[in-house]
Design brief:
Layout: E1 9-22, E2 25-38, E3 42-46, H1 53-60, E4 68-76, E5 79-83, E6 86-87, H2 90-93, E7 98-101, H3 105-108, H4 115-127, H5 132-145, H6 162-174, E8 180-184, H7 192-209, E9 212-217, H8 223-226, E10 229-234, E11 237-243, H9 244-249, H10 254-263, E12 299-302, E13 305-307
Parallel strand pairs: 3-9, 3-10, 7-8, 8-9
Antiparallel strand pairs: 1-2, 1-4, 4-5, 5-6, 10-11, 11-13, 12-13
């Protein structure tokens, strides 16, 4: 990863593994991931369904279920969230240091109360604001930031369109004044026009407010718009990492190339669940050799690029 002052690192994962208990076994969704996010920077975590990207995003947001199994280390803004086999500090960052924009914002809003009350509850609980006039002023600022009018405050969640719901969710994520925002598939339920609008809105707000940003997405085509760096995941492992423009221009891993081709509608594919002892991409890779039955390492190639592929090690 890019070398930065440790004081300027807001997310640091070291050999991070995350899994879910399944009867007498553990299904590991994330395996031995190492990455850093600098203050004010942005990272897109890309991969298809089942790649572990959402699990990683939830860990960064402090949203881990009680049945999760962990190993390694995760530090968020100096707070040790995961240490060894224990989750130790998720409650200290969740909803305060880190906010999450949910994948389905309409489902995350309380359907029985108006939008204004939802904002008041968040501002009261997280920022301790009690004065009604201040609550009103802060709420108006937040909805104005995302391009919504005052009329929205008097609506119930079911009265909002998809784009309005997404903008309300973005404004709510900004309410605690977090230093990190995790956006989980923020455009998956929107049409083509709104996808472009929302992703640019998130990118512009992150830049304007100097907020670090983690975007979880299956669509690698949006990464250049919103993120400086991109991490490509497959079956829980980090396959490639680097500056977004460099990765898109010259992908080093064949899986990254496949994602780019899929985004350009030149090919489609379904994820393979077959896991071998070597490279997790072995069963899908057009360049696979017997060497790929050995586990490759994530190696640094200079220019802030990293890749886990034997072809780059020969």
């Amino acid at each position: 990863m890019v070398l930065v002052d440790r004081k300027e690192v807001v997310v640091e994962a070291e050999d991070l593994s995350l899994g879910y208990e399944d009867l007498d076994s553990v299904s590991w969704a994330v395996r031995n991931v190492c990455l850093r996010l600098a203050r004010g920077s942005s990272l897109c975590v890309v991969g298809e369904s089942g790649s572990g990207k959402s699990t990683l995003g939830n860990a960064i947001a402090g949203l881990l279920p009680p049945y999760v199994r962990v190993s390694g280390r995760l530090v968020i803004e100096g707070v040790e969230v995961i240490k060894g086999s224990s989750v130790v500090g998720a409650d200290r960052i969740r909803g305060r240091v880190v906010s999450k924009i949910p994948q389905n914002p309409a489902a995350s809003l309380n359907p029985y109360i108006r939008i204004e009350q939802i904002f008041r509850d968040v501002l009261r609980d997280v920022r301790g604001i009690r004065d009604k006039n201040v609550l009103r002023e802060e709420t108006l600022k937040l909805i104005s930031t995302v391009g919504l009018s005052e009329d929205v405050l008097y609506m119930y969640p079911h009265e909002l369109s998809g784009g309005m719901s997404q903008r309300v969710a973005i404004a709510l994520a900004l309410a605690p004044r977090p230093s990190i925002i995790v956006a989980d598939e923020p455009t998956s339920n929107l049409d083509a026009y709104l996808r472009g609008y929302i992703i640019r809105l998130i990118a512009d707000l992150s830049e304007k407010l100097k907020t670090s940003l983690v975007v979880i997405t299956h669509d690698i085509s949006i990464t250049e718009v919103v993120c400086r760096n991109v991490a490509v995941m497959f079956l829980g492992e980090l396959m490639e990492y680097g500056p977004t423009r460099d990765v898109l221009k010259e992908p080093l891993h064949p899986y990254t190339s496949e994602l780019i081709e899929a985004a350009e509608l030149r090919r489609t594919s379904q994820i393979s669940r077959k896991y071998v002892s070597g490279c997790v991409y072995y069963s899908r890779c057009p360049y696979a050799t017997s060497k790929c039955l050995e586990q490759p390492l994530l190696v640094k190639l200079g220019n802030e690029r990293e890749v886990k592929c034997w072809r780059k090690l020969y």
